[in-house]
Design a protein that fits this description.
Layout lengths: L1 E5 L2 E6 L4 E5 L2 H14 L6 H8 L3 H4 L2 E11 L2 E11 L6 E9 L8 H15 L4 E7 L5 H9 L3 E6 L9 E7 L1
Parallel strand pairs: 6-7
Antiparallel strand pairs: 1-2, 2-3, 3-4, 4-5, 5-6, 7-9, 8-9
Helix pairs in contact: 1-2
Bound molecules: coenzyme A.
Coenzyme A (COA) binds next to strand 6, helix 4 and helix 5.
Length: about 180
Amino acid sequence: MSEGIISGRKKMTVMERGMVIEPLSKATLKGALETIKDAFPEEETEQVEFLSFSLSPKRKSLFNHLEFFVLIKDGSVIGVMGFGALRYEPEDIAWILYPAIRRSDQRHGQGTVLLGELVERARASGVKRLFADTSTESDDLGAKIFYGKAGFVRVGCIKPYFDDGSGLEYWMKEL
Ligand SMILES: CC(C)(COP(=O)(O)OP(=O)(O)OC[C@H]1O[C@@H](n2cnc3c(N)ncnc32)[C@H](O)[C@@H]1OP(=O)(O)O)[C@@H](O)C(=O)NCCC(=O)NCCS
């Protein structure tokens, strides 16, 4: 893996096999939203606002952190992941937001690469504790294995939490 320099600032990480990780931009917003919709088919549309907020300095000022990154393969967005925290939260924490790899590209290590890059970017932004939320539902088991392999540990659960009685689980990685 090698790092590229754009406009004098470290912005882009160039990887093997024609893959690039870069901060979300207006140019990649549509592909990022399509990727989230593909990975989370039942998700509502609030993520549209979330991602757009990160591109708006005014809206972004509501957050301590709000950064999204896209993984581009052969010119198309195949992965999205962000970290963010609202203003009322401690400055050194952030939450992983919308970790999504297109279904056709899952289980090829891309999520792990994107998460690794996100961890580095979060650390560079002063984040010391990075949280991920999942659920106790069986379809989140894969995500929990994914986080566990990346060094996250389960730190809590609120159950019942969702309408169907399932619980909300919190995972954390110290950076
Ligand atoms: C979760 C997600 C981002 C992981 O990205 P990915 O590129 O598929 O993950 P990786 O290939 O890097 O997986 C690394 C390891 O995590 C585990 N893992 C990942 N997805 C898994 C799944 N669905 N089931 C079981 N284990 C899984 C595996 O151990 C995997 O290693 P292996 O393939 O060598 O066995 C991606 O699968 C995704 O977008 N899922 C749908 C959205 C989602 O559930 N997001 C998380 C919400 S909490």
